[in-house]
Design goal:
- The protein is mostly helical.
- The protein is built from 10 helices and 4 strands.
- InterPro entries: Actin, Actin_CS, ATPase_NBD.
- Pfam families: Actin (PF00022).
């Protein structure tokens, strides 16, 4: 995502402020990462559906005190997670968006659980820290959901910083698993019996 942000900024600044283009090319990855977390947002719907609504400029001051005016780039950086097919460089890779991955997971479960899964989606981890991520995920999932299914997406509580919550959850599961080897599924079992095989 950092390098995508650099690419979009280069494109914009080369037409609006040519003297900044070389500076952007040499921005350290740490600066790009800070900029990404400071100004980037998720569009409430696909950028291709938004027209000019996302063109409001945000200013960002670089360490050398030069100023960048950032417009739609702050949305384009995150859009690769939600609509990878809109990026020419990614089209040939046949990637699924985050919402498509969630939908595929839900549909692999039996109908008994689908309603609850649609209605209880919790976002955690660094990629969901951007403003607008919850609303976009809910918007996308509503496009997929079958009639009669309620979609509810919530952010993880800040009791545990969301940026770490995925790691902490995995750590807790690993600790629990140590005492429940009978619940483990081997790679061979999974490959043989598939997604719906479980021991719970």
């Amino acid at each position: 995502m950092d390098e995508n942000l650099r690419h979009f900024l280069e494109q914009r600044q080369s037409t609006m402020n040519p003297e900044l283009k070389e500076g952007i090319q040499h921005l350290h990855s740490t600066i790009l990462s800070r900029m990404k977390h400071s100004i980037c947002q998720v569009s409430k719907q696909r950028l291709s559906e938004c027209g000019q609504n996302q063109q409001v400029l945000t200013t960002y001051e670089l360490p050398d005190h030069s100023i960048l005016n950032v417009g739609i780039e702050k949305f384009e950086c995150c859009e690769m997670l939600y609509d990878p097919s809109s990026f020419p460089s990614l089209r040939h890779r046949d990637l699924l968006s985050i919402s498509e991955l969630a939908y595929d997971y839900i549909m692999k479960n039996s109908e008994t659980y689908r309603k609850d899964l649609y209605n209880d989606m919790i976002l955690s981890g660094g990629s969901f820290m951007f403003e607008g991520g919850t609303e976009r995920m809910e918007y996308d999932m509503k496009q997929f959901a079958l009639s009669g299914y309620r979609v509810k997406v919530v952010k993880k509580s800040d009791t545990i910083p969301r940026v770490y919550s995925s790691w902490m959850g995995a750590s807790m599961l690993a600790q629990w698993s140590e005492d429940h080897e009978d619940k483990w599924i081997s790679k061979m079992e999974y490959e043989e019996k598939g997604f719906n095989f479980h021991k719970y």
